[in-house]
Amino acid sequence: MYKVYKVLPGEELRSIADKLDMEIQVLCELNGLTEETEVRAGENIVVPNHQASMFQTYRVKSGENLYEIGKRYDVSASNLALINGIEESDYIYPNQELMIPRKGVTIYVTKDGDTLMDAVRYFKSSPEKLQMENENIYLLPEQLLVSKKENFI
Q1: What angle do CA 35, 41, 43 make, to 5 degrees?
Q2: Under DSSP, is residue 147 helix (H, G, I), strand (E, B) or coil?
Q3: Is the CB of residue 16 less than 8 Å from the CB of residue 27?
Q4: 78 close to 86: Cβ distance less than 8 angstroms
Q5: Is 106 exposed, middle or buried (0-12, 13-18, 19+ CB in 10 A)?
């Protein structure tokens, strides 16, 4: 739900809040600071983990499979399996919890040879936004990248 953010040179609370698309008051409350507090480069502060807010939990019902669930939430069974660290052919059981992308969240599974710019073009985004939304981008085959469309969540 939260992660540690290292303050970069020249940043202040307002610029960090703007960069993370959040209200400065929320950032201050999370860290016990006021808007006037000066932060220094290298200092650690707590910020929301945006990627966590891009998924919802779904509880499997008796008789369901990845294909049915994926169709209902507009995500392929193979991507649903990847998100949840299971194989597409694995048995899913009643009451098992699965992570499902929220409405407005787009996912991309990297392929061998992908570059950051390939992902940026796929999402119609910017490198900065994509890096903010994904904690680590390695661009190894089958890495799951996420991005939310504007006006959602």
Answers
A1: 75
A2: strand
A3: yes
A4: no
A5: middle
**Which H, E and C letters describe 69-117, residue by residue?**
HHHHCCCCHHHHHHHCCCCCCCCCCCCCEEEEECCCEEEEECCCCCCHH
pLDDT above 60: residue 26: yes
| Alpha carbons 99 and 110: distance in angstroms, whole number | 19
| Matching residue, tokens 């303050």 | 7
**Which phi and psi angles does 151 have, rounded to 5°?**
70, 20
pTM tops 0.70, yes or no: no
Whether pLDDT at 68 is above 90 = yes
- Give the mean model confidence (pLDDT) for residues 37-46: 92
pLDDT at 67: 96
Residue 89 contacts by C-beta under 8 Å, 6 or more apart in sequence?
none
Cα separation of 139 and 116, whole Å? 7
Q: Write out the two tokens for 90.
A: 């694995």
